[in-house]
Amino acid sequence: MKESKTLVKKYYFYEKYHQKFLNKLVHILCIPMLVWTTTVFLSYIPTYIVNLYGFNLNLTAAGLVTFLYVSYYLYLDFRLGIISLFLFYLNLVTASKFI
To answer: How much is the average pLDDT of 53-74?
Structure first.
C-alpha cells in the first residue's frame, strides 16, 4: 500500500497548485504534445545496438527516457505503470516514425 500513498500525496500536491480550469486544460492538451515532441527530438540522438542474449536491440535516448518514465510510474502505482507503459510505448512508436 506504500505505492498508493505516494501516488495520493503527489495527486494532492498537483491538485493544490492546479485549481483553475484553464490551467488544467492547458496541462491536458499541451503536456502530451510536449512529451511527444521531446520524444521525437530524442529519437534523433544516434542509435546504439546492444546485443542482449543474441537479440540486437536498438537503444536510443528516447527509449531510455521512456523506460525511466515507465519505471517511475510503476514505482508510484502498478496499475498506473501498466497504463503508462502502453501510452509511452505508443508515444515512442509514433515519434520514431519521424526519424
So the answer is: 84
